[in-house]
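DM from R.C. (forwarded with permission)

"hey, sorry to bug you on a friday — could you get me a structure for this? deadline for the figure draft is monday and I only need the backbone to look sensible"
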Amino acid sequence: MSVAATTSGLIVLLTRLARRVYREATDDVLGMTLKQFVILNHLSEDTGVPQRHLGDVLCLDANNLVLLLNEVERAGWVERRRDPTDRRRHLVYRTRAGSSALTAAERGMDAVEDRILDTLNPQERTALRLLLAAALAEGTPSHD
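My reply, with the result:
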């Protein structure tokens, strides 16, 4: 382990890890862009997600979200429908083709994960996954 890895803060290390994932999770590996992969992960076939909420979750402004949704809609991976309870809103659904594309991309992402986390044993990977999930959980009390 390098000195920088042992003296850097957790956020710095997580940022470095995210950059490495971004570099390795290419279109060739996933069959789609990483942004498309992320958006498909936030959607399901059965439950629509309000377009505005999707933008908030993905930290995208409305214009960039629409551009991204246009791409994945052209690919046949998502569908936007009017919200039956509020005609001003659109709900975004993943299509069956989107679910199939996501399944293939997940295999590619598993390969990326294996390359990036190759120095961790299975128990360490499980512990890391649980810790990151706990840190990202919304509405959980902080530990002072």
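R.C.: lifesaver. The CA atoms of residues 1 and 116 lie 14 Å apart.
me: no worries. The beta strands are 49-50, 78-83, 86-94.
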